[in-house]
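The passage that follows is intended for readers who have already worked through the single-chain material. We present the inputs for a multi-component assembly, then the predicted structure in tokenized form, and finally a short commentary. You are encouraged to pause after the input and sketch how you expect the pieces to fit together before reading on.
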Amino acid sequence: MTAEKTDEQLLSDFLTGERAALAELALRYEPRLLGLALGLLAGQRDLACDAIQETWLRVIRFGNQFAGRSSFKTWVYRIAVNQCRSLQTLRAAGETTDPPPAKHATDAGPARAAEAADQNHAVRQAVERLDADKRLVILLCYHTGMTHEQAAEILELPLGTLKSRLHAALTELRAALSAAEATS
Amino acid sequence: MSDAPTAPLEQQLAELTAWHGPVPGLWRRALKTTESQRAGSRSPSMLRQPVPGWLVGALAVAALIIVAVMANLPSLSRARESPPSRAVRRTPASALETSLQEATGDGLRDLASLGYVSSPPGGTPGGGGGAVRGGGKGGRVSTPAQGTATVSEPTAERQVIRKATIELKAKDVQAVFLKASQLLSEARGEYVQDSSLTGEGVHTEASLTLRVAADRLPEVLNELRQLAEVRSEKITGEDVTGQVVDLEARLRNEQRVEAELLTLLETRKNSPLKEILELRSSISGVRQAIEQLTAQRDRFGRLVSLATVLVIIRPADAPAPPPPKTGLWSHFGDTFQRAWENGTLFLVNTLAGLVSVLIGGLVWWVLLVVAILIVRAYRRRTRPSA
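Having made your guess, compare it with the prediction:
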């Protein structure tokens, strides 16, 4: 039985002409990257798809420049984050948002579902009100499978700086959520 | 104070960056886009599947066979053998080819791929479609293509390049030539791209390549028809909307990449010199791509906005050009004729060579005879008597 190839090996295989290697990389990362892009782009699926397509374009185009100083994961996430930032600045604010469906909401009864949807909505709104840096830090740090070290590497920040920003972001988020609960 | 949020909040935050539903497979689209771009710029692609050697060999052999067959086709051979200097006495077909080559400077193949298109006012012929209309005794019978199969297609955003060829039969070739060249509206940017008037009497021939505003093409053709009797007429077009849209999309994409790279360069001023140089190199590459795409787009724009009309004028009493030979029998006859001519030529060349050796080496022949005589006389003297 052959051992599973690392991301870097797959990238190298792809660069030598093996398409299946890119497919394997996409299998590993595309859903997660899409999810992150969706969070960073306020739930706009079309924009998220644009950002991730551009990310793959850059992986294909500049894959031969990947020097291995970081892991493939942090490299591809950095590209995706930069794409999302670019799209955010390019697109004018005020477009219709398309919040993702609340997966867990359907598992319970209607009352629980409505409550969960409300909570999700409140959290989303509170996150949206954070400034861009804090929003990025908080979404990246709580993104599935992401460690603080990796997040720091993606954002090119020292680990300490990342943690202090995360702390500030969480404090602000909690305050916003408390205020929202108090008013409702 | 702990950084860790409460479990539900952590779950909700994770949920904000979760993707639900099918994965759209964006990597495939990216791969396609990259490959089409690389195919356009003919850069070596690292993404191609490795091709087995035997397949390459088989393809090469097949290509050689095709080239050999194509090279032996009579029509192509004639076209290849006719030098450009023969344009003075060119047939309408060769005149069209050479004129079209001169029209864009990139040869007939480019024209065929790009089309000669324009935006017609009502209905456009489909890509590569065309019409030939007969006129006079020698006119070729044809089917008008305008406004037939493609009438129902939307034309508002269509990008169509059009070309027209019209062959006229006139009593006074020179007068018609002058009138034809005055049909243009310089105010609208129309111009004569190429013109020639050669020969005398029944051998007089004039040709004009006009670039006219696309929407004026029918009007100009009507005016040309009124100048003299039409011997033949042909209108062709090619829809390049898809190519233009693709070009513009690629251009927008490259511009976006350039903007991003510039932003990156601005924000990384303190980065190592190597990285900055790499970034500049990337920007340079992107800019070059933008310039190429812009030039291609402008070229399409020019071809679309100005239709090309080739006008060939011949005297009314000029003999009609012989129809081109086609078919296998004609090909066999041509091959046999060429073989016979080559054989005769070889025989004549051999005889000429022999004569040349005989006359050119006359001095040596004389010297040889003298030498032989001397040798024989010497032998007789030295031979012992019986």
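Commentary: Chain A has eight helices and no strands. Chain A touches chain B through 56 residues (CB under 8 Å). How closely did your sketch match?
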